[in-house]
Amino acid sequence: MIFLLRFTVQPKVVINNGSVELLTKLKARLPQFRYSLEGQWGSEPLRKELDTYFSGIGVSHDMISLNVGHYLGHRKSIVDNIVKRGRPFWTQLDKYLEKAKQQEIPTIGWTVNRKRKIKKLKDKKIDYLLTDRVKPQL
After folding, report:
1. Are the C-beta atoms of residues 33 and 17 closer than 8 Å to each other?
2. What single DSSP character describes residue 126?
3. Closest by CA position to 53, among listed 62, 43, 64, 42
4. Is the Cα torsion angle 25, 31, 32, 34 positive or negative in sign?
5. How would you classify residue 52: left for phi > 0, otherwise alpha for psi between -120 and 50, otherwise beta?
6. Cα angle 7, 13, 14; round to 5
7. Which of 27, 46, 83, 108 lies in the 20 to 30 Å Cα band around 72?
8. Based on the number of CB atoms within 10 Å of its own CB, is 16 exposed (0-12), middle (13-18) or buried (19 or more)?
């Protein structure tokens, strides 16, 4: 069973969390897995904390996870501080993806359930998309 885990499942596992401290500890103890830093509410990689997400590559995480599917936030104070889903969001996303590509950092977009948005993000060359749909039927 350990042989099976090592050669079939292990390379496909990505541990995703919003805590740099936790990911750093896990990566030191379990270096065989890949790790993804997820922004709180998903919008931070597009905002002022962008350097945190890029500078930790190789230390605390190997990938960056970003909410590109749903509108973000459940409270007014959070909604007021996020990057809106209009043109400013997509402009910032393009900059983020370009920087990630230049540094060869894989990106994950979640949770994308609408066909139109899946197609748009595939066209932008985001590396991985998470969906709740079993067959998005593109």
Report:
1. no
2. -
3. 64
4. positive
5. alpha
6. 150
7. 27
8. middle
